[in-house]
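Researcher: Quick test of sequence recovery. Tokens follow.
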């Protein structure tokens, strides 16, 4: 079965950190660019970050630049999103998506081959 599975979400106080994981099963992750998206209640899904197949190219939304870091370990078939200095506006369901091409910037939720089920991130005191 071809799927992406996110994990690592939770409740964290403002200023805290979380690391999300996106694990692939049933296909070779190395051949896919991976994007992270998030959706807050009542808002449209937005692109957060993207990483190329080799990990040499990355892209971030302005709202997370300097606070979030995307990385990948193709041997472990996993992509990570390290989130530091979290703010309440970072709250939402975070999804990863796989694109069958080198890179996924500029980010769009159109054209992804696979999506994960999402993991909830809540930033609140």
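Model:
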């Amino acid at each position: 079965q071809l799927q992406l599975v996110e994990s690592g979400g939770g409740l964290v106080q403002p200023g805290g950190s979380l690391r999300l994981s996106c694990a692939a099963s049933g296909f070779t992750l190395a051949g896919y660019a991976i994007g992270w998206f998030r959706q807050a209640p009542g808002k449209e899904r937005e692109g957060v970050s993207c990483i190329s197949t080799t990990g040499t190219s990355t892209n971030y939304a302005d709202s997370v630049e300097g606070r979030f870091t995307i990385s990948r370990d193709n041997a472990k078939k996993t992509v990570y999103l390290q989130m530091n200095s979290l703010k309440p506006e970072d709250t939402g369901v975070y999804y990863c998506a796989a694109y069958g091409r080198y890179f996924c910037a500029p980010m769009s939720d159109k054209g992804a081959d696979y999506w994960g089920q999402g993991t909830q991130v809540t930033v609140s005191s």
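The longest strand covers residues 18-25.
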